[in-house]
Amino acid sequence: MIMDPHLLRYYEQGGELTRLRQGRGRLEFWRTRDVLLRTLPPAPAKVLDVGGGTGAHAEWLAAEGYDVEVIDPVPLHVEEAAALPGVRARLGDARDLPVPDGAADVALLLGPLYHLPERADRVRALREARRAVRAGGLVVSAFISRYAALHDSVRLGTLPLDGRVEVEYRTLETGEIVSAREGGFRGYGHRPEEIVAEFTDAGLPRPRVHGLEGAFWLYGDVDDWLDDDGRRELLLDAARRLECEPSLLGVSGHLLAVTPAVTPVGDL
């Protein structure tokens, strides 16, 4: 298992412990949970949470009765996830999963594909997910939108910093994401149509692609909405109604693609 040293250093800072549990990152969390609850087979289906980090989603899946195993390349993440009730965790690489064929009902890849800059590696990870899931099971993968970095740099006010315009515009051309913060995030941003092509090349049917946050993640008061139970439900419902609108997919910070592992393309 070979992991980008820069990426490993980034995650060893421990930011993944809070990213989906605090602040506006909760919108991504709640929307991912919302789509999964409408999509997954009933518990106690077996879920491989590939690249599951510290177990933000594994935790609630286990609480719902799912049989959950986190596979992640970062030792700190594995340690934190394994401490959660009902969650198993071990080291592993999305491109070479340490499981037999058909071992799970669902393979979640909620992080790996935006950390693999080479297309061949992303397709390989999707093929591995397909292999690991039983016939009729689900493959679910998350992506960062190609346009998210530029939107975020305007929201945060970092676009005027030296060199940021060139970096953000290069992301639009190449997909390479480089954070403005020292030791910050690096990744790959997808155009919506790229997602479909990569699933197809991995031998998977055309996925249903959901925009998770819509434009709402860019709103200044989104934290206030998420802090209030009633307003949060209104926000989630609004995002749900727009989630598959093709003209809005690229505005969302994250995209979630869902497909059965072996259904012929023509059946979708």
UniProtKB/TrEMBL annotation:
Keywords: Methyltransferase, Transferase
SUPFAM superfamilies: S-adenosyl-L-methionine-dependent methyltransferases
Domain Methyltransferase type: 48-140
Keyword Transferase found: yes
Gene Ontology terms, MF aspect: S-adenosylmethionine-dependent methyltransferase activity
An annotated GO BP: methylation
Domain of life, per lineage: Bacteria
Pfam entry (one): Methyltransf_11
InterPro entries assigned to the protein according to its UniProt record, in alphabetical order: Methyltransf_11, SAM-dependent_MTases_sf
The protein's name: Methyltransferase family protein
Listed CDD domains: AdoMet_MTases
Gene3D superfamilies reported in the protein's UniProt record: Vaccinia Virus protein VP39
